[in-house]
Amino acid sequence: MTQFILRRLLMVVPVLFGITVLVFSILHLIPGNPAQILLFGSNATPQQVANLDKQLGLSGSVFSQYGNYLVQLLHGNLGYSYSSNQTVVAEISSQLPYTINLALGGLVVALGVGIPLGIVAGVRPGGITDKVATGVAVLGVAIPYFWLAILLVLLFAVKLRVLPALGTGSVKALILPSIALGWGFAAIIARLLRNNLIEVYDRPFMIVARAKGLSEWRLLWQHAMRNAVGSTVTIVGLQFGYLLAGAVAIEVIFGRPGLGAFLVARIQEKDIPSIQGVVLLVAVVYLVVNLLVDVAHGLLDPRIRRSWSR
Question: How many CB atoms lie within 10 A of CB 117?
Fold first, then answer.
């Protein structure tokens, strides 16, 4: 297992290097000189623009700038925000807890709705419960999360007035954003788990286990779920980036603080270091989550564990 983790870590290194190159390129893809943008309207002289370029680390060749950028990253320095003149690390740290809470809330909704729906549909395929669960899953995939968010606000906040549409001070304020973010993900989990269970129940070892007189409960949890949940765990990791990306629109719709709202504001202000910091953080989190998912998948599937020792 240690060798497997080391191999996966070595595979992450070139990917991480490519991410740093792309993130650094944001600086040169956005039109205009950042120093001129910051000094816009102040009738700055060319010398003042050149001095600010040097202060922001924008002087010199592209390769020297990238080298300095890597050195700063290795020291945990993401630079200073053009807008607030505070460190990007401090600004992201202040917004990150809100986004984590929202992403975890969406994940709870996805797992809490998707797994039961998938089990109900997969154990009795073709029945009424299967059709209802499949219909819910199809609606979840078909309705965009931002449109669902607006519908939830209109129904529960405006019409029924049972849940708040804005704010972060209570658990109630997290319910609607979490549902809007996690419902589509729940539909994906439900459809995948349903198909996996149907396939597992048709395998010979399940037929033999049922012939031995095992109860349906033991068949489901001791045999079927252990073989069907592996790919579900994988899709949870792969879709975690979807939760982070979806949080951008959800935070704006519900007026919540977080990395999404922070990123939108900084894009409008052309605050390049802040944009780079958020993109880099999301990419690193996505890589780490996928590494953890690979390890978890191996622990759940003996066939993958055997391949680790090869």
Answer: 25
CA torsion 296-302-307-310 (nearest 10°) is: 120
Closest to 246 (Cα-Cα) out of 184, 168, 161: 184
Domains and CATH numbers, the chain: 2-74 (no CATH), 90-308 (1.10.3720.10)
Report pLDDT digits (tens) over 230-287. Answer: 777 777 777 776 777 777 778 888 888 888 888 888 888 778 888 888 888 888 888 8
Phi, psi of 57, deg, nearest 5 = 80, 25
Ordered DSSP codes for the chain:
-HHHHHHHHHHHHHHHHHHHHHHHHHHHHSSS-HHHHHTTTTT--HHHHHHHHHHTT--S-HHHHHHHHHHHHHTT---B-TTT-SBHHHHHHHHHHHHHHHHHHHHHHHHHHHHHHHHHHHHSTTSHHHHHHHHHHHHHHHS-HHHHHHHHIIIIIIIS--S-SS-SSSSHHHHHHHHHHHHHHHHHHHHHHHHHHHHHHTSHHHHHHHHTT--HHHIIIIIIHHHHHHHHHHHHHHTHHHHHHHHHHHHHHTT--SHHHHHHHHHHTT-HHHHHHHHHHHHHHHHHHHHHHHHHHHHH-HHHHHHHT-
User: In terms of Cα–Cα distance, which of 203, 175, 51 is closest to 109?
Assistant: 175
CA dihedral for 38, 265, 21, 69, sign (positive or negative) = positive
| Regions of the chain short of the pLDDT cut 50 | none
Query: Considering only CA atoms, which of 54, 81, 80, 76 is closest in space to residue 65?
Result: 54
